[in-house]
Amino acid sequence: xxxxxxxxxxxxxxxxxxxxxxxxxxxxxxxxxxxxxxxxxxxxxxxxxxxxxxxxxxxxxxxxxxxxxxxxxxxxxxxxxxxxxxxxxx
Length: 90
Fold this sequence. Notes:
- By secondary structure, the protein is mainly β.
- Helix content is 0%, strand content 42%.
- The chain is built from no helices and 8 strands.
- The protein has strands at residues 9-11, 32-33, 36-42, 48-58, 62-63, 70-72, 76-77, 82-89.
- The strands form 3 sheets. Strands 2, 3, 4 and 8 form a 4-stranded antiparallel sheet that branches. A two-stranded parallel sheet has the order 1-6.
- A hairpin with a 5-residue loop joins strand 3 (36-42) and strand 4.
- The protein starts with 8 loop residues before the first strand and ends with a strand.
């Protein structure tokens, strides 16, 4: 069982686990959108493999926040695009 209080503090300049509360939970609500391509292969009668490839653009900025602690030295992320590859078996 983990108990948290708002007295916890996360310093993004010092993420050493020895100086933190052993639990770092952060979130950043950036909005991404971009093109993607999916290819589906049939390996046999019952198994399909799907490959997804996407490049997403960061359309909004966002600061790092936490529901369990106060975040110090937060970084405002901006212009961080991402390339994603996913393989799905079904």
